[in-house]
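#onboarding

Welcome to the new folks! Below is a worked example of what a typical request in this channel looks like: someone posts a single protein sequence, and someone else replies with the predicted structure as tokens. Don't worry about understanding the tokens yet, we'll cover that in week two.

Example request:
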Amino acid sequence: MKNWLKLIPLIIILGLTIFYNDNITHFFIKKIVFNEKIYLNDSNEYKLNYDFKYIKQTNDFVAKNKQELINIFYTFLNNGNEQFYFYCDYDNCNNDINSLTNENELSYINNFLHPYNSYKKVSITINSYNKIEAFVEKSYNSDIIEKTNKKLDEIIDEILDQNMTDKEKITSIHNYIIETTSYDSNYLDTNLIDINNPSHKAIGPLFYHKALCGGYTDAMALFLNKLKIPNYRISSETHIWNYVYVDNNWYHLDLTWDDPVMDDGSEVILDNFLLITTKQLEDYNTGYHTYDKSIYIEAS
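Example response:
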């Protein structure tokens, strides 16, 4: 009988453990796992020290809502990390992860990064403890970065003067790119869908002298970052262009639309989209410059 009496407390503890299993697990995660200190690796040289109204850097790597989730991704990607992990501590985290990946919301983060830290692919896993791991395949590899940086420096030495204002520097770069680049209409005419086509990246205009909107925009962004002029890229469903902070104001800058191919195949060089306000952009009513103002808030 005494032996049975000794077992009763153990049976009660076992029963409580089974009954409150979820709560105990949650307690373990909250007190042990979520208290793990996650550190950023040393950033690479292409980290941008900007915060925007939509997205900000963070030191808290336990997301408690979708905005914190976005900020964490931005922080690691902006830091240049190719692999990282963090935790979620809210019920809808799985759905938000799926939304970011399946509905392409994560791609918006690319527009706020230095092009060299932008990604071509992010693979994401999430386990039962809401630990999220991400593996990043970047858009530019080290060989292309080295080659491109050398080209950028050569062009800057050739066309810019240190006595120029920032607006004059931007205008000179704008003119150089569109004078040496043709819109890659052949890419569209042949219905190619190769995302690795050089015309999508800065190497298109800088080395092949052909570009689509992504190539024009990345090339301009690289120059702007070299000159330490704050900027990001704005994308619609069908187009992308630069947004630049200069002389205490934000301006749109669209090299693609300033380098059109006419119906007869001839090319003209314009400056209609060179450092213009949101009102000026909207007055053009192109149909290609409609964007989400809840994301690109500075442009709203």
